[in-house]
Amino acid sequence: MDALTLLTTTRSVRRKLDLERPVPRAVLEDCLRIAQQAPAAGTMLTAQRWIVVLDPLLRKEIAAIVRESAHAVWQRYAPQTDNRIFASGRYLVDHLDRVPALLIPCLPGRPPTRLVEQTSYFGSIYPSIWSFQLALRTHGLASSLCSYHLADREEDVARLLGIPADVTQIGLLAVGYSTQQEFSPAARPPVPEILSYDAWGWIR
Ligand SMILES: Cc1cc2nc3c(=O)[nH]c(=O)nc-3n(C[C@H](O)[C@H](O)[C@H](O)COP(=O)(O)O)c2cc1C
Questions:
Q1: Opening angle at CA 131, ends 126 and 134, nearest 5
Q2: Beta-carbon count within 10 A of 36 CB
Q3: What is the mean pLDDT of the chain?
Q4: What are the residue boundaries of the Nitroreductase domain, all occurrences included (predicted)?
Q5: How many angstroms separate the alpha carbon of residue 14 from the centre of ligand 1?
Q6: 32 close to ligand 1 (CB < 6 Angstrom)
Q7: Overall domain count for the chain
Q8: Is the CB of 87 under 6 A from ligand 1?
């Protein structure tokens, strides 16, 4: 697959994850190797830690925690969320215990409060997360972020997996083989709507 197709058609996959087919560790490790090539702030280049959860019992326990948090999150954000995304998010949460691999990218420390530090902090892992998602696709896998437990249950997942209190979970990725290989570009704002040259170009 050429790079432009990969970049424009890699979607958050929730309903089309193969819940029966195990994900080999070697594939995940290869994708993580690629993800480590992503840019990060100089001080954070070696800071990432990724926990891969394959154990069925742990996945079940994590899924139960995520499910509880998701209901509270949906009550708050559902009115602002596209119905299709909401329904597909619900499907994923309902089936999360059966998703073959759950990945939790982590960073040391707690999220900073100053903007300049926040941007370095989260910005030092999201490029890797996205590279990881792109790399999965090249192996026929797909993924979606499903981070609801960060609303109020991060500590419960931390306890379950032995994650120290001074380590931050950045999200939770649901990963599996994709039952569909062809995806289309999503509807997004056209460039002229989001672009302005030389000055802020929108009326607020
Ligand atoms: C920071 C971040 C957090 C996200 N969290 C969730 C989530 O908790 N649950 C979920 O279903 N999707 C989550 N997503 C995926 C978005 O919902 C998804 O990108 C959006 O629906 C657009 O679909 P697409 O990725 O297929 O273009 C997240 C994406 C990002 C970048």
A1: 130
A2: 15
A3: 96
A4: 9-177
A5: 10
A6: no
A7: 1
A8: no
Return the ligand 1 atom nearest residue 89 CA.
11
**What whole-number distance in Å separates Cα of residue 93 and Cα of residue 134?**
22
Q: Residue 53 sits in which domain range?
A: 24-177
Does some domain include residue 120?
yes
Is residue 92 pLDDT above 90, yes or no?
yes
Supply angle C-alpha 55, 17, 170, rounded to 5: 60
Stretch 158-181: mean pLDDT: 98
In the numeric block, the tokens 């040259």 are attached to 197
15-32 residue pLDDT tens:
999 999 999 999 999 999
Pocket test for ligand 1, best of 9, 10, 12, 133 (most atoms within 8 A of CB): 12
- What CATH number is associated with residue 136? 3.40.109.10
